[in-house]
Design goal:
0% of the residues lie in helices and 56% in strands. The protein is mainly β. A hairpin with a 5-residue loop joins strand 5 and strand 6.
């Protein structure tokens, strides 16, 4: 089992920055992909981006490329989602997930609200 706890959400204004954290525990993560997802009010869950724990390779959904950055801290077993130039359409609950071939473990989410 992998336990994931997100933090760092809040209320910000358009154009502001926010950094989300995902603290992981329970297993060695070297084989895992760590993903960030979001779910806006009334919409389905959307993939935001991911990072491979082994080689730090990242990929992102087009709508956040150039604005969001995923990184990790091996010593702290923590993954970060740095969000810059936030827009009202980024408003959502943000979730961290972990898995190898599929995302098997999920956190409970942290809400982000971007006001215009």
């Amino acid at each position: 089992q992998v336990q994931l706890v997100e933090s760092g959400g809040g209320l910000v204004q358009a154009g502001d920055s926010l950094r989300l954290s995902c603290a992981a525990s329970g297993r060695t993560l070297s084989r895992y992909i760590m993903g960030w997802f979001r779910q806006a009010p009334g919409k389905g869950r959307e993939f935001v981006g991911q990072i491979a724990w082994s080689d730090s390779k990242t990929r992102y959904v087009d709508s956040v490329k150039g604005r969001f950055t995923i990184s990790k801290d091996n010593a702290e077993n923590t993954v970060y989602l740095q969000m810059n130039s936030l827009r009202p359409e980024d408003t959502a609950v943000y979730y961290c997930a972990a898995g190898t071939t599929t995302y098997d473990f999920w956190g409970k989410g942290t809400p982000v609200t971007v006001s215009s």
